[in-house]
Amino acid sequence: MRAFAFAVLLCCASLSTADAAEPAAPLRQSYDLQVPVAPSPVRMEGVSWLLYELQLSNFSAGPLRLQSVQVRDGDTGRVLAELDAAALAPRLQRIGAAASEPARALAPGEREVLYLELRLADGAPPKRLIHRLRYGYGSEGGSAELEGATVDVRPAPSLILSPPVSGGPWVAIHHPEWARGHRRVYYAVGGRAVLPGRYAIDWVKLDAQGRTSAGDRDRVAGIYGYGEPVLAVADATVAAVRDDVKEVPLVSQHRKQSLDDAPGNYVALDLGDGRYAFYEHLQPGSVRVAVGQRVRRGQPLGALGFTGDSTGPHLHFHLADGRIPLASDGVPYVFDRFRVIGRYPDLSQMGKAPWTPPLAAEQLSRENERPGPNTVLELGRD
Q1: Listed GO molecular functions (predicted)?
Q2: Average pLDDT, stretch 29-47?
Q3: Which of 77, 142, 334, 362 is the S-S candidate for 358 at Cβ 3.0 to 4.6 Å?
Q4: Distance CA 182, CA 201 (A)
């Protein structure tokens, strides 16, 4: 009995010592953390990436300012990425704020989005991610830490697509850092906030000198790519079609479109497994398929045009989890093959100057990948 009492006293003493050495942090109202869409690894330029968003909502009674974020392997605790305040600033966007509005502390009730592009080391990707934050609060400069937003990593895309256009040169236009690029434009039109363009690419055709037209760049019909066939990326069923949006003959005549008309004329293909391929801004009267029709990989669906919310003739292409363009979340995809012939580090030079040639050691023929940002490609025909 004495031995038992002595053991209990030792246990209590050790607990008291531990409590004294590591006092529990006080409970504090702060962020609600959510990863709305679990990421999947996608290959790009020989590297696997995770593209996803961490949403932070301020549930406290005072402003909060994010100071640093660690992304960790949820099983091993290994730090996969660490962003300090300088790295966070261009990746944070407050919901409802203009893209040009300077960053500030998040007020009570506000939400912001942290856009993450996580480069993975070679080998098996992590099975889970967890996020550790340090944030500031109060007028006296207090700071605290928070861990949460655990999310499972989904498998990599299993369906390998063929490109939606052929020949070339084509510029695959996208960049994760553009404040108003597809990657950062949310829509909430059906009771759910979605990011349709998470993996979207705009396809623009060039000539060998990097020009976008043979002459007058204001004349729609003279712009390279206009009228080019857009092709089924896989065997699929036509899920949705629109072909009644009108087109103007001059780029300068184009006006801002309503949300209903933003995609312009489009075709959506049901690829199965809850994935839909979207082809937007098509030429009026060019759509060759009907809802319910089965199509084969490489089959022409319509023609590249200049309808909807567009700054010039191009094909907008993405995959999503539903058949309505602006009410579906973007999902990852890769193409079976393409050849890299250069890139535009500064996209403002597209149409004015030739592209930058690839590096001597760069692998030009790519398979089962997503094209890198603003790369110039040649695409074969099946």
Answers
A1: metalloendopeptidase activity
A2: 94
A3: 362
A4: 8
